[in-house]
Design a protein that fits this description.
Helices cover 36% and strands 18% of the residues. The chain contains 4 helices and 5 strands, in the order ββαββααβα. The protein is elongated and about 65 Å long. The chain starts with a strand and ends in a 6-residue tail after the last helix.
């Protein structure tokens, strides 16, 4: 598959990516990641290995798009949990009694 990453064209295949990533130890992946084989790699690490470019030269979105088209499982950043509303003891007791909670 032909794709463009950091304004350079690359002919990538699933087997080629698997071969490139063989023997590469995955870094910690707190954000976007790609599952290659049984390992989860950060997107930027995969992009660096397969393109041999500096991580600053391409975006995670470019690599995610290419890896998805090749059939790899990709994970985006997990959405931040919604903040929970702090309820004081009086409001909690009122809610338990069925009274509307005051804001």
């Amino acid at each position: 598959m032909r794709c463009v990453i950091a304004r350079f064209p690359f002919d990538l295949t699933k087997s080629g990516v698997l071969e490139s990533m063989k023997g590469i130890k995955p870094e910690h992946a707190p954000g976007e990641s790609v599952i290659i084989g049984r390992r989860t790699y950060p997107v930027k690490q995969v992009g660096q290995v397969i393109t041999r470019q500096d991580r600053r030269d391409f975006s995670a979105g470019e690599v995610l798009r290419a890896m998805t088209q090749l059939g790899f499982t990709c994970r985006d950043l997990a959405p931040a949990p919604a903040p929970t509303r702090v309820v004081n003891p009086l409001q909690q007791a009122s809610a338990m009694l069925g009274a509307p909670v005051a804001a």
